[in-house]
Amino acid sequence: MKMPEILDNVNKTLKDDLAATITKGDKLSIAAACFSIYSYQALKKQLDGIDELRFIFTSPTFLNEKAPKEKREFYIPRLGRERSLYGTEFEVKLRNELTQKAIARECAAGIRKKAKFRSNQTGGNINGFMNIVGTESTTYMPLHGFTTSDIGCERGNNIINPVNKMFAPLSAEYIRMFDQLWNDSSLMQDVTEEVINGITVAYDENAPEFIYFMAIYNIFNEFLEDVSEDILPNEATGFKETKIWGKLYDFQKDAALAIINKLEKYNGCILADSVGLGKTFTALSVIKYYELRNRMVLVLCPKKLSDNWHTFKENYLNNPIASDRLRYDVLYHTDLSREHGLSGNIDLSKLNWGNYDLVVIDESHNFRNGADYSGRGEEKRENRYLQLMNKVIRKGVKTKVLMLSATPVNNGFSDLRHQLELAYEGNPILINSRLETAKPIDTIFRNAQTTFNRWSKLTLENRTTDGLLRSLDFDFFTMLDSVTIARSRKHIEKYYNTAEIGKFPERMKPVTLRPKMTDLSSAIDYDDIYGQLMKLNLAVYIPTDFLLESRRAKYVDSSKNIDRAGREAGIRRLMCINLLKRLESSVYSFRITIDRVRALINGTISAIDAYVSGAARIINTQEISDDAFDGDERNTDFFESMGRKFDIDLDDMDYISWRSKLAEDSEILELLSLLIKDVTPEHDTKLQTLLGLITEKVQNPLNAANKKILIFSAFSDTAEYLYKEIAPFAKSNFALDSAMITGTTDGRTTVKLKQTDMNTILTLFSPISKDKELLMPESRAEIDILIATDCISEGQNLQDCDYCVNYDIHWNPVRIIQRFGRIDRIGSRNDRIQLVNFWPNIALDKYLELKGRVESRMRATVMTSTGDDNPIDPEEQGDLEYRKAQLEKLQNEVVDIEEMQSGVSIMDLGLNEFRLDLLEYVKEHGELDRTPFGLHAVVSANEDTPRGTIFVLKNRNTKINIDNKNQLHPFYTVYAAEGENLGDEPTVHIDHLQPKKLLDSLRQLCKGKEKPLTELCGQFNTETKDGKNMKRYADLLCFAVKSIVDLNEDSSIDSFLSGKQISLAANTIDGLDDFELVCFVTIK
User: Which long-range CB contacts under 8 A does 219-228 form with residues at least 24 apart?
Assistant: First the structure.
């Protein structure tokens, strides 16, 4: 009897021994936990010559019935055994050589001819062993698995892994035991077909869509496990059968489902889709969902948008969703500060504010400044934000909050924080437990704001959005992803099928016009007027500057902590800026404004002179409160809002100095009035240029027969002036009707109408988008030219029009984009649309320098009167920091809001749509947990996606995620682009720190392609010799992994140099062996 031998599997491996022992015609019988194609490949030469291979899986594997997922302690090990077919965790290196396809094909061919597989179908244990039956029988045991680590090719995680080699007669006993097991049908089930099918999957051509879903299945698998029916939209409500649901486009349906999910899980959500993407309809579908669940809903909106919201709930002819019978209440933002009176049909004195289950806040950015009080003592009043928080959200029933805004972030992340606080009642404890973040929400925002502040101080060329995103940590993105949805127009065009939506119209390059003020040779131009304006003291607005020191205490109310000087300085600054803006708007607006201011000044001088002559010594001055103005309105109609009267005793003043300053101002204003007196409409070059534009547009329409023109001005004075001049011009020359809307009074129009309210005029101006046929079927009238203020720059759909004119450039660039958004909308019937901007006739550098001078001059005054070193409020600061780069961009192209926000944008950060994609897929096709790693698909390149490969990798060292930067950890995605020419170095097109961008590209390349692209697959197979020669792609994979390691090392070194305590030794990614390839997509 031959003595048994011991193979240590290090110096003498099982693989080498088998290679020497197996001879042609032998029969193999193996009992082991798992079977790997790589182990088969290692012994292919020998296995090709055998007559038979019988394999028993020692534990239940590849059985038809599947253990329920709830019993995961049984299911997960079995799943691991089944997946070992494509290589175990110790065969990652082999998998990463990307030859899996060729190996699987060869293995499947061999197995089909001579292999049979059976599986233990009981819970009983079987120890592993291998028999070779030939001229001489041999047995090897123990054998855990038939993998490369078990046969000694790879080390695996074994400290020692010895195998006994036994000969007859001992081996005969093992052969007998194997046969006994093999033939016992109560113990064994045949799984040959399942194994072959499993191996076939590894080399079949794959549909790109399948690889996309495989990628997101692995990345977001935990999300599926966490999903509770409570936080998913309940389809039993029938909300998908409603009229509003049927009117939504795919991207709106995605948003609606995600909103419901976020409202249920986090109690709040911000929908920040860009201008023109139909946020109202998306919100209406969410409202209907909650109404079907018998919830009370309140819509809070600016007054100017109330007609829209009322239309969708009333039984009106022009309500496209009247059959849904929505019943929500509509109130205005300003109603929060009211306790009495009616708002529409609602009696505010009886309203139960605390009984709303859902509050939808339209234009929620109006609440971005957070909680504040005005006044002290008995006069202390909460601002609207606090009224909303205390009256509606904290009081009564639990209230969910949906916020709608295209611009939720204006000056910093605190804007976002204040809005999100409404969702968790200002109490971080209510949301911290729900967010899957390492840090609490307050810390996340504080860190993000610190990062933003640091970033905003960088030079212009270094202040990139990409740079900001890289600086923010993982928790910030997780938090944003949890509670916001934000898609840009470009995103929708790129990643959704726009065939069903209808296209966006083509944006023509903006027309930039800089007409002179007048064609009169004797008259002055903008430069001269600016020079005079800078000399103004505007002392009429700062009477307390002239109080005698001994009397000043009378005008400081310590109980209310109000220093009139500080407030007056603020009014003076705004008045100065307002004069400047009105000059940019129109000569007419500027003229009547300086006449009003001069009348106020002269009235004050007369009062002082009367006092000197012995008349009354009390003088009335105006007091304007910040609360009197909302948003941009604070810089428009100041001169019409005289505010409350405030008395000052001239006995308490150095009235002589004050009168002197007032007289100086009066003289300057009189001079200015004289200088521009001759600039009548006939000599107003800007107006005449506009009339020329109208003529050109009407005679040469941009789109066939479309003569419509929308003209915006920030000021009602200018709008009235334009209407007065344009209406008769258009009527007499082209028989076109015009109209004007300023929001302060009813509109005016050349059409004879019983009523000239805003809605009637807008319906006649944009009859298709406003359903004129339903509302006014008898009327044949139509308005072609509409002149308006910013009262219609938000929330209105006027896409019948294709030509938008900004007669004055608003100092807030977002407003310009919002104006254009009235006609630049999804589903427009126009092929092309045009934006025309009128700019002051002054060089851009000088224009900005002038604004800077106004700011600094006024800042100096405020500092001296208040001691405040940052006197300009954020709203005004945003106006004044209107950077040169932004202005230049606006002159040359139509930009989207997210491009205009200097990097403070929450667009394209959320990952929710991928999760919802996955949820839908799994519902229809089942889970992908048996799908092998390493699969690939081939797709074609386009202008946004160059030739290369997208790799989806899983990091096996789960402790690695330096600085919490990778949002998808432990998964890493890299898009490696190939060089244009053969031999060029590859480049990283999208790195692992931009997961949203990369997954968007993957989705765009793959989704909808349900079958393999045969021609491209053929090219790939020819190039790689059917997967045998994968060196080019294996090298690209190495390059991708190196890019991850390099970025992480850079981050570690940066952290180390900045003084953070880190352990470089503990946080190392060794390279390729630390990652396993989940799947890849090659772009040809």
Answer: 219/914, 219/952, 219/968, 219/971, 220/911, 220/914, 220/915, 220/918, 221/929, 223/915, 223/918, 224/918, 224/919, 224/922, 224/927, 227/919
> Within a 13 Å sphere around the CA of 415, how many CA atoms are in the beta-carbon half?
21
Which among 925, 951, 1043, 939 is positioned nearest to 215, based on CA atoms? 951
DSSP assignment of 591-602? HHHHHHHHHHHH
pLDDT tens digit sequence for 917-936: 887 788 788 888 878 888 89
Any alpha helices (H) in 867-911, and if so which ranges? 874-880, 884-892, 897-900
Radius of gyration, CA atoms only, the chain: 37
Q: Return all residues near 784 (Cβ < 8 A) that are at least 6 apart.
A: 707, 708, 709, 730, 736, 737, 738, 765
Quick check: bond before 681 cis, omega within 30?
no
For residue 971, give every residue at least 6 positions away whose Cβ sits within 8 Å of its Cβ, in sequence order, or none: 218, 219, 952, 953, 954, 955, 1078
Identify which of 426, 448, 452 has the alpha carbon closest to the alpha carbon of residue 439: 448
Q: Quick one: pLDDT band at residue 313, thresholds 50, 70, 90?
A: very high
Calpha distance 283→332 (Å, rounded): 17
Residue closest to 513 by CA, chosen among 700, 675, 711, 704: 711
Supply the DSSP symbol for 393.
Answer: I
On the 0-12 / 13-18 / 19+ scale of CB atoms within 10 A, 629 is: middle
- What's the rounded Cα separation, in Å, for the pair 265 and 272? 19
pLDDT band at 171 (very low <50, low <70, confident <90, very high): very high
pLDDT at 73: 38
Across the chain, how many H-helices and E-strands are there?
37, 35
- The count of other CB atoms within 10 Å of the CB of residue 568 is 25
Per the DSSP assignment, residues forming a β-bridge with 833 are: 507
pLDDT tens track for 392-450: 999 999 999 999 988 787 667 888 899 999 989 888 888 888 887 878 999 998 988 88
Which H/E stretch holds residue 382?
strand 381-382
- SS3 label, residue 543: helix
What was the pLDDT predicted at 849? Answer: 58
* Cα–Cα distances in angstroms (integers) from residue 159 to residues 8, 11, 67, 81, 560, in the given order: 11, 14, 33, 21, 78
Q: What is the DSSP letter of 394?
A: S
CA atoms lying within 13 Å on the CB side of residue 882: 25
Q: Residue 702: which residues within 8 A CB-CB, separation 6 or more?
A: 508, 802, 803, 830, 832, 833, 834
| SS3 (DSSP) at 346 | strand
pTM of the model: 0.68
Rounded distance between C-alpha atoms, residue 623 and residue 571, angstroms: 9
Peptide bond into 233 cis (omega under 30): no
Per-position b or e across 732-769, b if 16+ CB within 10 A of its CB:
eebebbbbbbbbeeebbbbeebeebebbbbbbbbbbeb
Distance CA 465, CA 463 (A): 7
Q: Hey, what amino acid is at 962?
A: I
Instruction: Identify the residue whose tokens are 């009992």.
Output: 31
Region of poorest pLDDT, from 314-318, 595-599, 685-689, 912-916:
912-916
**pLDDT at 981 exceeding the cut of 80:** no
863 or 4: which carries more pLDDT confidence? 4
Residue 659 pLDDT greater than 90, yes or no? yes
Of all helices (H) and strands (E), which one includes residue 836? strand 832-838
Q: Using a pLDDT cut of 70, give the percent of the chain over it.
A: 80
For 1049-1063, what is each residue's pLDDT tens digit?
555 444 433 433 333
Q: At what angle do helices 250-266 and 912-925 cross, to 10 degrees?
A: 100
Lowest mean pLDDT among 337-351, 654-668, 854-868: 854-868
State how far the Cα of 758 lies from the Cα of 776, in Å rounded to an integer.
Answer: 15
Where is 683: in which H helix or E strand?
Answer: none
Q: 974: which strand partners?
A: 951
Closest CA to 1002 of 950, 935, 941: 950
